[in-house]
Specification:
This protein has about 160 residues and is mainly α. It is built from 6 helices and 3 strands. About 65% of the residues lie in helices and about 10% in strands. Strand 2 and strand 3 form a beta hairpin.
Length: about 160
Amino acid sequence: MRLMARIPKPSAEAATHVWWVLRRAAHAIEQNAVRSISALGLGLSEFAVLEVLLHKGPQPVNVIGKKVLLTSGSITAAVDRLESKKLVRRTADTGDLRARIVQLTETGRRLIERAFQQHATDMEETVAVLRSSERTELVRLLKKAGMWAAVRLEGNNGTSKS
């Protein structure tokens, strides 16, 4: 019979418990966001692209993709859908003729301004249970954990140290 090393029983603050609670909370909040955005007639990727353009101005396609966590193929498809709806337009980047700059059309600007306002209200209702100071602390802790997790991935190329 093989003896197994004794693994201490996880406490309520065990990393696996933190991960599980974070995952469930993120899922519930994301479902609220999806409901909010789909009620506006947009997909999550489309909304994310329009929101970046609203707040950051015209951007190269690849920069938008990185900001909204989409692969190059997915960002191209999202921009194609938005362009076919006449919500954005692509122009040549004068600094790099291989790159394309995406910008809002007037129709796109009107839509995302209205959509973002409604989405912000919906998200306020979603996290209304948290006081302002709790939101600030939550954001600080999530950034801290996220940056550390990203550093770990870069440091060992996504492999686990076992």
